[in-house]
Amino acid sequence: MKPFDDPIYVTRPMLPDLDDVNKEIQEIWQSQWLTNEGMKHKRLEEEIRKVLKVQEVSLFNNGTIALIVAIQSLGLSCEVMTTPFTFPATPHVLKWNNITPVFCDIDENTLTIDPEKIEKAITAKTTGVLGVHVYGVPCDIKRIQEFADHHNLKVVYDGAHAFGTEINGVGIGAFGDISMFSFHATKLFHTLEGGALTCNDPSLKSHIDLLKNFGIKNEDEVLMPGINGKMNEIQAAIGLINLRNIETERSKRKNIIDTYRKNLVGIPGINIFNLDEGITNSYQYFVIRITREFGLSRDEVQLELKKYNVITRKYFYPLCSDYSCYRNLPSASRENLPVASRVVKEVLCLPLYGALKLVDVESICHIIKEIHANANGKRYYSILQS
Ligand code: T4K
pTM, whole model, 2 decimals? Predict the structure, then answer.
């Protein structure tokens, strides 16, 4: 196989039609209302509420600020249980709230926080759980809620990858006390940068909305030390257009995933995720796990693919517990995190975005087969030589 002429990245943003963007921007210019809960913001908040099938939504300028506000709005303190297998934002939002992250190992199949490990790690200082629906795969929300109720803990979900994930038709944002969604450019649904919090409690939404707007209640009163987490009108406008195109993007991504599955199945050492019945895919990532039987390590496969101009990502390597700012925590030891420590060396996200051509997906699969054949050919050759 020849390398691709241009790099094929792990993702590319959904790009709305420029005429549609111009039309929206003209309306914003005419209104002279650029941010602070404008008309586009109001409309997007209502539309997202319906799409995510949740009771309350608050839009934000990005997912990280949203998550910082979520933690603050619930009054979490001391220690919060979380997963090491995630993007840096997850434990960082705890630190930004003066909270110590307590890392719990992950479940081998879902790669989300293992509820049994949460129960074992609970101490008098634990105030909550911050689970991550990593790659859009839901955490074990039922077991986590049982422990939380039993120990009087709050539950926050980082659903950065889970836009559109549902469990038996129920939006993933309806579980726990608060869920966060990221609308970053690399996400299936995006507003350039952006994010949202969802919850089931109108008074909690009011508190969140105060916190994201400096704590300002009205011209005369500031109730709390809030932050600036507001989404502006251009972000909201991009969101409104992207929402119109989202089903098309999803169905293209579904075809791409089906093509990967069809072509990669049966290659030794390539393991593909299977979602449990009743779970709707968020189509955010296509991840494979590469094990010994493949003949090359995950890192070697990534480098080989790069030679063909296929730019994959090792999301989420390294584990957050291995960052210099966290590695001295008792919960960060590798012995405490055996599953995460192994899995993080196996995962590889392959390119997935609507504009990716199916024929290119087939070529990527062909390249992977070739890499496998070469690796094993070389191995057999060296065995024969010795
Ligand atoms: N929690 C979790 C579990 C998360 O995964 C994230 C974010 C957050 C919280 C925080 O949410 P936000 O505050 O971001 O809303 C990217 C994203 O920046 C980040 O949002 C995302 N997770 C993370 C998984 O992916 P990088 O460092 O991998 O991005 P970057 O710039 O390397 O982009 C990846 C590829 O995407 C590029 O190789 C090409 C393509 N790309 C990227 C951008 C920005 C484009 O084609 N166009 C673009 O504009 O973090």
Answer: 0.96
Distance 152 CA to ligand 1 centre (A): 34
87 touches ligand 1 (CB under 6 Å)? yes
Ligand 1 centre from 153 Cα, in Å?
Answer: 30
Please identify, in words, the CATH class of the domain defined by 245-375.
alpha beta
> Is the beta carbon of 65 within 6 A of some atom in ligand 1?
no
Domains 18-241 and 245-375 share a fold: no
Strand partners, 106: 113
Q: What residue has token string 């005369």? A: 220
- Give the pLDDT confidence of 309-342 residue by residue, as tens digits: 999 999 999 999 999 999 999 999 999 999 999 9
* Class of the CATH domain delimited by 18-241: alpha beta
Q: Is 16 in the pocket of ligand 1 (CB under 6 A)?
A: no
CA torsion 276→198→163→66, rounded to 10°? -120
- Which amino acid would we find at residue 97? N
Are β-strands 166-167 and 279-280 bridged in parallel, bridged antiparallel, or unpaired? antiparallel
Tens of pLDDT, residues 270-294: 999 889 999 999 999 999 999 999 9
Judge contact between 133 and 159, C-beta under 8 A: yes
Cβ pair 115, 94 in contact under 8 A: no
Domain residue spans in the chain? 18-241, 245-375
To test ligand 1's pocket by mutation, which of 9, 60, 135, 184 has the most ligand atoms within 8 angstroms of CB? 184
Whole-number pLDDT of residue 347? 98
